[in-house]
Amino acid sequence: MGEDLRYHIRIYDPEKVGKYVLLPGDRGRVKRIAKYLENAEVVADNREYFTMTGYLNGEKVSVMSTGMGAPCISIGVEELKTLGVHTFIRIGTTGALQKNLKLGDSIIPTAAIRGDGTMDYYLPKSFPAVGHFDVISALKEAAGIIGNPHHLGVVLSTDSYYGRFFNTKKAAEDMDLFVRANTLAIEMEVSALYVLGNIYNLRTGAIITIREELGEDGEYKKQAGEEYENGLEKSIQIAIKAVELLIEKDKNIK
């Protein structure tokens, strides 16, 4: 008996999942996203992987939570691709590394610094984590249509949420370099998603919302709240619109 290639996500029928999948980390966010789909229904629920599938412009689209960090999102993407999924958009949250970024702003990462360890098992650090041009372009166009403040650029993906409080000297030195290089924000999943996209010829992109805003002293001064929630809803709408744009483009190509 061979290995179960969908053991974690528990989706075995390719008809249960769309070829376009939105990936929030928080399972509690799945229904919040799926409300924009027609006839959305739960198709699987196991561990951190809670999945709903519905329709967008006549095309089947799914929403699946991935939990936190590169290991979890990589497992989810690996298993979804065996079902024929070709387009992935992460919808997540992030902490600002630049003072001009405000709570609720959307970031569309063009690439990620590979601070995670998961992808090291696939490829050396010299291999870049870069999003797919078509998806990034669709997200940028969608952001203009929806109208939320948005920024394109490089983000830092890390495996450790609290590690900076322990290894303070090294963390401070590295972070100072990244900030001076205009790295926009810090999060935990984009690098893994983008590297897997390149490896398997999948279309990948992400839109992440500022949940922590920096003060003039470089420390976080504002976290979550109404501005963030409003921005997150806009980011969700941007992702939905981006999928619509990709669906239309794909139909025209066919």
Automatic annotation (TrEMBL):
Chemical reaction(s) catalysed: uridine + phosphate = alpha-D-ribose 1-phosphate + uracil
InterPro entries: Nucleoside_phosphorylase_d, Nucleoside_phosphorylase_sf
EC number: 2.4.2.3
Swiss-Prot/TrEMBL GO biological process terms: nucleoside metabolic process
Nucleoside phosphorylase domain boundaries: 19-242
Superkingdom per UniProt: Bacteria
Name the record gives this protein: Uridine phosphorylase
Organism in which the protein naturally occurs: Marinitoga piezophila (strain DSM 14283 / JCM 11233 / KA3)
